[in-house]
Design a protein that fits this description.
Distance between the termini: 13 Å
Helix content: over 70%
Structural class: mainly alpha
Largest sheet: none
Number of domains: 1
Number of strands: 0
Strand content: under 5%
Number of helices: 5
């Protein structure tokens, strides 16, 4: 092989190492961090998948260029390998789409869960205030009519607080259910498609070694 052919071969190998490896690691790590609900890491893995999926096209270009230089571009195994590689890149696009959907679903779950939790805590605070008012009433010893009204108000405040506190989590549950279910679906689909992509890489590697 000439120097130019060796140079293209080195580029081909470098693209394989620095793009195929990282993108495979990213898609295999994604389901675990979806399960952990770690949106920050998921955003990093999504960017990583997109960048290295685009960079992996260098593997195809350098490989096909090398095959043309050594007069093997028309071989059936080269055509099969190139076709499988294009299919793998398209599947990486589907994985990147599912990663973005999972991030959006988990973000929606975090957003809808916040206000409900705050309302629940606020209801508990009002209930505590009502109980405190009920304890101070006997110390001031107001008239009987006012005492009865105060007792009724003090008795009603905890009930209202309890109902607000109990209504908060119940109102939050339906809002959280849909995003979490969507994230679970995306996690399973990413794992399945990622396994197919890894199998395609393995088939291409066997074809390259077998016919080299």
């Amino acid at each position: 092989m000439s120097f130019s052919q060796h140079l293209v071969l080195w580029l081909h190998v470098a693209f394989v190492i620095f793009t195929i490896g990282p993108v495979t690691l990213a898609i295999m790590s994604t389901p675990r961090y979806i399960r952990k609900r770690d949106i920050r890491i998921l955003r990093y893995l999504t960017r990583m998948t997109f960048i290295f999926a685009i960079g992996s096209l260098g593997v195809l270009l350098a490989g096909y260029g090398l095959a043309s230089m050594i007069s093997k571009a028309g071989k059936p195994w080269i055509t099969v390998s190139a076709t499988l590689f294009i299919v793998a890149v398209l599947l990486l696009g589907l994985i990147n789409r599912d990663q973005r959907r999972a991030i959006k679903a988990l973000g929606a779950a975090a957003t809808t869960g916040g206000p409900a939790t705050a309302a629940s805590q606020a209801g508990g605070g009002h209930a505590g205030g009502g109980e405190a008012g009920g304890e101070q009433a006997p110390a001031d010893q107001p008239p009987a009519g006012h005492a009865a009204g105060g007792a009724a108000a003090a008795g009603g405040a905890p009930a209202a607080g309890d109902s607000a506190a109990s209504a908060g989590p119940q109102a939050a549950e339906p809002a959280l259910a849909i995003p979490e279910n969507l994230a679970t679906v995306e996690r399973g689909r990413i794992a399945m498609i990622g396994g197919v992509v890894s199998l395609i890489w393995l088939v291409i590697l066997v074809l390259m070694i077998w016919n080299s």
